[in-house]
Amino acid sequence: MDFRSDTVTKPTQAMREAMANAPVGDDVYGDDPTVNKLEAWAAERHGFEAAMFTTSGTQANLLGLMAHCQRGDEYLCGQQAHNYKYEAGGAAVLGSIQPQPIENNPDGTLDFGKLKAAIKPDDSHLLAPSC
Ligand SMILES: Cc1ncc(COP(=O)(O)O)c(C=O)c1O
């Protein structure tokens, strides 16, 4: 087992067979039973009305930010956050959303005091964090 990252994990033979044999369809029309099942399972498991399958974590993070922020907004995140450090600045490049990185605690968590201190006042000259 290699726990450096989910991205180095290789599928087992059973996983490959499940993928190859999965019923498929056009997801745009809602005709992919496997995607429909996965989305229904994820929504139920996390207590949401609906869920959406994305093809990568980077895509999911970007969609999440863009769903919550408007152009010119700012989001608070950890200096070590994947979406800040490793995702090619997608939020800024594609969403016009500026990150405001906060130093992470040694265990990776974020200090609420530091987060609160980084929230800018509601002033049209400043960015207004909304996510
Ligand atoms: C926490 C976290 N977010 C996002 C990603 C990006 O996922 P993807 O490589 O599927 O874009 C990774 C990838 O390892 C991750 O560990």
From TrEMBL:
This is Low-specificity L-threonine aldolase. Belongs to the threonine aldolase family. Homotetramer. The lineage of its organism: Bacteria, Pseudomonadati, Pseudomonadota, Gammaproteobacteria, Vibrionales. PANTHER family: L-THREONINE ALDOLASE (PTHR48097:SF9), L-THREONINE ALDOLASE-RELATED (PTHR48097). Residues 2-125 form the Aromatic amino acid beta-eliminating lyase/threonine aldolase domain. One of its GO terms (molecular function) is lyase activity. It comes from Vibrio variabilis. InterPro entries: ArAA_b-elim_lyase/Thr_aldolase (IPR001597), PyrdxlP-dep_Trfase (IPR015424), PyrdxlP-dep_Trfase_major (IPR015421). The keyword Zinc-finger does not apply. Its EC number is 4.1.2.48. Pfam families: Beta_elim_lyase. The keyword Lipid biosynthesis does not apply. Its cofactor is pyridoxal 5'-phosphate. Keywords: Lyase, Pyridoxal phosphate.
